[in-house]
Automatic annotation (TrEMBL), chains A, B:
Gene3D superfamilies: Aldehyde Dehydrogenase, Chain A, domain 1, Aldehyde Dehydrogenase, Chain A, domain 2. It comes from the Bacteria. Its EC number is 1.2.1.41. The lineage of its organism: Bacteria, Bacillati, Actinomycetota, Actinomycetes, Kitasatosporales. It holds the Pfam family Aldedh. This is Gamma-glutamyl phosphate reductase. Keywords: Amino-acid biosynthesis, Cytoplasm, NADP, Oxidoreductase, Proline biosynthesis. It catalyses: L-glutamate 5-semialdehyde + phosphate + NADP(+) = L-glutamyl 5-phosphate + NADPH + H(+). The gene is proA. Coiled coil: none annotated. It is an enzyme of class 1 (oxidoreductase). It is found in: Cytoplasm. Pathway: Amino-acid biosynthesis; L-proline biosynthesis; L-glutamate 5-semialdehyde from L-glutamate: step 2/2. PROSITE patterns: PROA (PS01223). Catalyzes the NADPH-dependent reduction of L-glutamate 5-phosphate into L-glutamate 5-semialdehyde and phosphate. The product spontaneously undergoes cyclization to form 1-pyrroline-5-carboxylate. It comes from Embleya hyalina.
Length: 420, 420
């Protein structure tokens, strides 16, 4: 990239740091007022956002983009009103900043408390959908963080218009314009620059497909929260209610196939295979799902496609599922440990012992007992908002709401205390 | 590095993953019994550890290592007994694993709980002191993690002997030998291999000097917890008790100069400079401290060495301190934001408003009000043990005890729940 483009990205990050210093001590009321102003401005100026969006959509059409992607890209007055309504919902959520997580008076009389503080500068790198531009900005503002938004080039005009509206709104509310910034540049180079802005950017959150996430995770010197790749499993135990198992399986797989919490592999205990697999295959067929089975599953139906080694590691995000028969719960756990992305795994069982063992042994973000994998979701968990689903173990694991956009600091109050 | 050496490091990590799966569901009693066995074994076999240590010490002497470093490297029966006693203290700490951090029953009846789980495989990269070999292993075992220990080559024989004793002890207690492993190889290549073992190692914790920490932070694809670089500040406010301020300053600087929570810069409000700076200079001189001052501080004494730009960013770890006069609390905060490593900053003030403002505006791991910077410490905070002091914002910030060696998972229990 040209050095001027590089310095433009770093300048953006430096301005974000300045804004973050202003945002950190703000009270909830000030932040909520700015969010309400932002929501109002999006609605009031939706015509100019839609006009910019039309340009993106036309360009996408000219580039031969598929209709599903076009639909995700498209903004209308109604959709903008819905996005603004989501911002108003964020106003209703508690402010995580200032929460005292723990505290004590030490034996020497020092008063110790651990207090939530904003992370500082949050970079969000995302694809396609322009609603993330608003969601990300709103959640970061509520949690006292400055945000650097790096959307896809396909939505660049839409994002530029949205960010201009949001910046005007926060300025009108008395906050720095650089509370919210779009990272300049439409090429991949600006992403690289953001990934190595260590010391200026506190955390990067990539949201999108597996390839985007891998690129960011492997190339960043800035700390990254890995999100959203889901190779989720449904394990049907030896002791199980067959109808319930079929319902959970079909819901986990086919309720919405394009999302990270949909199931991609079915594992069936061999003691229940004769009873369950034929029911499962029929129900999956009705739902339009192609089954990629091991030899044992193939034996039940000619419709089953032979699974290859790659199937066990595949996040299909389509009407496909891998399926295998396993000799025990422990073999199911071993399979999951080897192949899962660590997102969500479900057991369907009537056995309390099996449920307890599965929960103890499965090392994933969420473990479901007799419930669909589709429940791993900030909204479903009652968090009120979600910036993504972390599948890593550091900092945040699972659906990330406002508290996950904070760090902490220790405040220690003494009376002339020195160490002896 | 040779490919066989590389695969040796990765094999170590793979074996650690297997061990981690066994450790995760263990009860506190099993882990505590193993720790007690480990402590007993260290004492029982201290002769063979000391014999190995003698070789390291002789080699260090032959290489011209200074006496301070030789002292840190040296193990005796008494020192090993003290290290074993620290392990017994860890037995007394609560097990963080299994703690329910939050939970609720969702409107649809799903029971949601967030439970602490081990991180998995923790790699510790450290310098010189062989006591870290035991501390790191004990804290990781207590928190259910498998540990990969990568000490310095100068302590390789000592660490090899200690790890052999610890592995025998955990095996005798019924745990996998690979609960505790020394990373093979004495060269820097094995560190590099560890840093890129993403997917096998869950977190790396570097403990040591700034250069080691920078190398690990910048070169790792494995998530890293940055520890311990401390450019700490003492700010003496306009309203202040002079004697208290002198005591806190001298304690922060000179109580122990080689540690990360010692003060490296003094900032004085100009309204109190005439009264305070002469007292401070006299007390620092008595404590053997050289002051590197700005023009205003130089005006008070010919002993003051003129500060260069580099002084404000220097972690001396010696009997030196930088000193400047600032026109306001806001200028002190701005100086700290620009130059601090984000470890610990102290304000000395009698003004409640100034204390409140300093705490709100300073973005560091710990903020002290009328107390020495030396209090930022797991032991002082009452955490009972410390694996290091994190100066980053993700995951853990400040002294890291057992809870900071854990992640969480969500357990969701239903009754056939599917999403509609």
């Amino acid at each position: 990239m040209t050095s001027s483009a590089a310095s433009a990205v770093l300048d953006t990050a430096r301005r974000a740091r300045e804004a973050a210093a202003v945002l950190a001590p703000l009270t909830r009321r000030v932040k909520d007022d700015a969010l309400l102003a932002l929501a109002d401005a999006l609605v009031a100026r939706s015509a100019e956002i839609v006009a910019a969006n039309v340009e993106d959509v036309e360009r996408a059409r000219a580039n031969g983009t598929g209709e599903a992607m076009i639909d995700r890209l498209t903004l209308t007055d109604e959709r903008i009103a819905a996005i603004a309504s989501d911002v108003r919902d964020v106003v209703g959520l508690p402010d995580p900043v200032g929460e005292v997580l723990r505290g004590s008076t030490l034996p020497n009389g020092l008063e110790l408390r651990q207090v939530r503080v904003p992370l500082g500068v949050v970079g969000i790198i995302y694809e396609a959908r322009p609603n993330v531009t608003v969601d990300g900005a709103a959640l970061c503002l509520k949690s006292g963080n400055a945000v650097l938004l790096r959307g896809s080039s396909s939505a660049y005009r839409s994002n530029t218009a949205i960010v201009a509206v949001m910046r005007d709104a926060v300025v009108a509310a008395g906050l720095p314009a650089d509370t919210i910034q779009l990272v300049p540049g439409e090429t991949h180079d600006s992403v690289k620059e953001l990934m190595t802005a260590r010391g200026l950017v506190d955390v990067l959150i990539p949201r999108g497909g597996a390839s985007l996430i891998r690129t960011v995770v492997e190339g960043s010197t800035v700390p990254v929260i890995e999100t959203g790749v889901g190779n989720c499993h449904v394990y049907v135990d030896a002791s199980t209610d067959l109808e319930r198992a079929v319902n959970i399986l079909v819901n986990s797989k086919a309720h919405r196939v394009s999302v990270c919490n949909s199931a991609e592999t079915l594992l069936v205990h061999r003691d229940v295979a004769d009873a369950f697999v034929p029911l499962a295959l029929a129900a999956l067929k009705d739902a339009g799902v192609t089954v990629h089975g091991d030899a044992a599953v193939q034996a039940y139906s000619a419709d089953v496609v032979p699974a290859t080694d790659a199937d066990w590691d595949t996040e299909y995000l389509s009407y496909d599922i891998a399926a295998a028969v396993v000799p025990s719960l422990h073999d199911a756990v071993a399979h999951i440990r080897r192949h899962s992305s660590g997102h969500t795994e479900a057991i369907v069982t009537t056995s309390q012992a099996a449920a307890r063992e599965f929960v103890a042994l499965v090392d994933s973000t969420a473990v479901m007992v007799n419930a669909s994998t589709r429940f791993t979701d900030g909204g479903q968990f009652g968090f009120g908002a979600e910036i993504g689903i972390s599948t890593q173990k550091l900092h945040a694991r699972g659906p990330m709401g406002l508290p996950e956009l904070t760090s902490t600091k220790y405040v220690v109050v003494g009376d002339g205390h020195v160490r002896s």
